[in-house]
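Appendix B, example 12.
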Amino acid sequence: MASSSATLSLCSTFATHCNVTSRRSSTIMCSLSKPSLNLAKPVTGFLSPSTASTSRTAFTVAPKFAESVVEAEPETTDIEAVVVSDVSEVTEEKAKREEIFAVVMVGGRQYIVFPGRYLYTQRLKDANVDDQIVLNKVLLVGTKTHTYIGKPVVTNATVHAVVESQGLNDKVVVFKYKPKKKYRRNIGHRQPNTRIRITGITGYEEYPAAPNVAV
């Protein structure tokens, strides 16, 4: 009787064990058959299809941008050409202006002047703004080919200028001091000046000239 009961208990435990294992295997198979959310998500890897598709779309968009840039190129080239031409014209005018220069004496001082440039001199009396003035003390006139040297001035040579403004130089501080006398003086002074612009140099053609020699 005892052996039969032991066999029955062993059979029952084996049956229950088989039922548990079958249930586990069924649940595992169901889980494998159903697609998980993680597998359904796109993989953002180096060889993923999403990256390939995005890269292809990027390459298709690039030619449109390149075409727009190529179409805009002629406008920029035209602007650059205009700017270059303007700069060349300005340089040519500047070169023509600087082909001649002169040395003039104004108020006991000598100045080198070029047509088109401005100059600060000592205060010119009875000269108002926008007045036309003539400088007759021309000591020297130079061109590309000849040099006219005055003895002491170039006869009939004149420098024409226009008065632009009347002003003052920078302040100069004059400080006086005497030791052991309690004497100190601090005085500021601004020298008046006149700004003129050179408009032309004429009248030197008839004066005897010396040819320029290359050094």
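Helices lie at 2-33, 37-40, 49-97. Confidence is low (pLDDT under 50) at residues 34-55, 57-85.
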